[in-house]
Amino acid sequence: MQPKTYLSLDEELKAEKHDTTFLRYFANLCKTEKYLEGESYALDQLGAKYRNFSKFKKAADLHQEALRLAEEANNVELKVRTLNMLGVVYRRTDAIKTALDYNQQALELAEQVENPSTHIKRSINVSLNCIGLLYQTLEQYDLAIMQFKRALKLEEELGNKLGLAINHQNIGVCLEHKGDLEGALENYRKSLAYNEDINSDYGRIICKNSLAQVYLKQDMPYAALVLLEPLHEPSKTIGDYYITPRIFINTGWAHTELGNYNKAHKFVLDGLEMSQTHNIPSNVLYAYQKLAYFEQTRGNYKAAYEHYKKADEYNKQISSATNFRYMNDVIVKYEADKKSNQISVLAKENEIVRLRLRKNQTTLLVSALIIGLISSILYILYRQYQSKNEKRVLTLEQNMLRSQMNPHFLFNSLNSIKLYIINNEQKNAVHYLNKFSKLVRKILEASSLKEITLAEELETVELYMNIENIRFSNEIDFKIEVDEGVNVDNVKVPSLALQPFLENSLWHGLSPKEGKKMIHLNVKKKNGSHVSIEIIDNGVGREAAHANKVNRVLKRKSVGIRITKERLANFSKDYQNSFDVDIVDLFDKDGSPAGTKVILDIPVI
């Protein structure tokens, strides 16, 4: 009997598969018998053993031969398995682009199987796990965690405790890099619990080293040493010189924190030597980083700087631009190929649907014409609505300009300047004539703009108030105050938006009032999304102003405020937040009207 599937082979050789001598004998026997699946399985298992002893060149050669045999036997399960194992070997030596190539090949091949076996499902999880580790190398921790969680869910469905342990460990590593130490501890402990359940010494060593590393980051060196010191000899016995140097380097780090400098130096150097001997660049980098920290702690900054330079050299070697570009290209290629396959499947389905609907071509044609007609009508209606809206906005702007340039204002302003000329007050006449011309120019310029800066708007209203104040014999106390937190050059407002409110205060609030007259304009930062503009006058109040308006022989229509509100509503459509206008009546201590406050909340980007 010659089993063909990976799981059947694994079940038959469960007791002997950890014995390298037996595996060599079995591989030679299968070669003699031309039993390709058996020979491939044995060489693949031997490769994994050499990998765990950090003999990566020998491991890669064995996996390559196992892959050749699996391809010759056309056995998908064994091909996927050996491709994944090659990815693991090259990842351990930081050959990232080669590792990703093999893991992507394994995942593509496994996902093409229509009715996957349990082993194929586990192999998909291994591929996801390996790709997640490569994302982790890219420091794309969120993407890596997504891969690990996807694999974790599939491992739960399969009830594979080893897979659960591995993925919780990897999630913990990503969270540790992100600074979520509590989340990392939680996942390391879950991984340790699964490794205890399956009695995996190798898994226990990895988890305890990871826990100790977090304790060191949490300034708990004693707790770290309790976990690390019992791992020295067991990690050497296992022979995985990817993890053993880390344990020694972390032990040195713990002694550095405790001030045991002789011990600290020895342990870090031991870890460095092991990493260099077995050619593991990431561990060499880690060792130089801890040596630099050791020298810095002792105050030997020159030596620390030398170690930092060596660490930087190794970091550049590991994180070469070629590797990263290659990884991104392969990831994009894989996603593109996967989408192409999906598009191909959809195209076939569409062809079947088209054949089924051929008998109903007349119905489809009529439906298409109806849809086209409806779409045309909707488009025409939309364009009419858009045109109407543009016309409404233009009308608003024209009405606003008329409001600003009304004949009463122009006549009164020129008449006031004429009085200065008649009274031979040439200096005042020239002064106010300059202001008047500047104001007219600003109004005309602003009327063509949808929005201007608040600084320009404040300059315009100041000119306007200076001109209007002539009619009041300069009795009006007009002030503009801007809070320090508001940059008026960065705030946008509709052009000529404030003048109607000031005009309203002048005509209806201050004109009938006797005595001291005041208008204050305050600009304040309300919150992150709004600037508040307050216009406060001490006029007769809205109730008295309304009574005066009713009794006037010549009634003046005040449409400026209504137009401005419409313009503000249109202006705020381009912003996330809406505008608001609030008019508040002011009263003195006796409850008598003391003026009006207008509050405009203008949205900002």
Q: Main β-sheet, in a few words?
A: 5 strands, mixed
Number of helices: 25
User: What share of residues is helical?
Assistant: over 70%
Q: What's the total number of strands?
A: 7
Strand content of the residues, in percent?
Answer: 5-15%
Into how many domains do the coordinates divide? Answer: 4
How would you describe the shape? elongated
**What is the architecture of the largest domain at the second tier of CATH?**
2-Layer Sandwich
The CATH homologous superfamily name of the largest domain equals Histidine kinase-like ATPase, C-terminal domain
Alpha-beta content class: alpha+beta
Strand arrangement in the largest pleated sheet: 2-4-5-7-6
Low-confidence stretches: 400-405, 553-557
Please report the first level of CATH classification, the CATH class of the largest domain.
Answer: Alpha Beta
The whole-number mean of residue pLDDT values reads 81
The CA-CA distance between the termini, in Å, is 76 Å
Radius of gyration: 40 Å
CATH topology of the largest domain: Heat Shock Protein 90
Write the layout of secondary structure elements.
Elements: H1 6-12, H2 20-32, H3 36-52, H4 56-73, H5 76-92, H6 96-111, H7 118-137, H8 141-158, H9 161-178, H10 181-197, H11 201-217, H12 221-228, H13 232-238, H14 244-258, H15 261-277, H16 281-298, H17 301-318, H18 321-356, H19 361-404, H20 407-422, H21 426-446, E1 451-453, H22 454-468, E2 476-482, E3 492-494, H23 499-510, E4 517-525, E5 530-537, H24 542-551, H25 560-571, E6 580-587, E7 593-603
Parallel strand pairs: 2-4
Antiparallel strand pairs: 1-3, 4-5, 5-7, 6-7
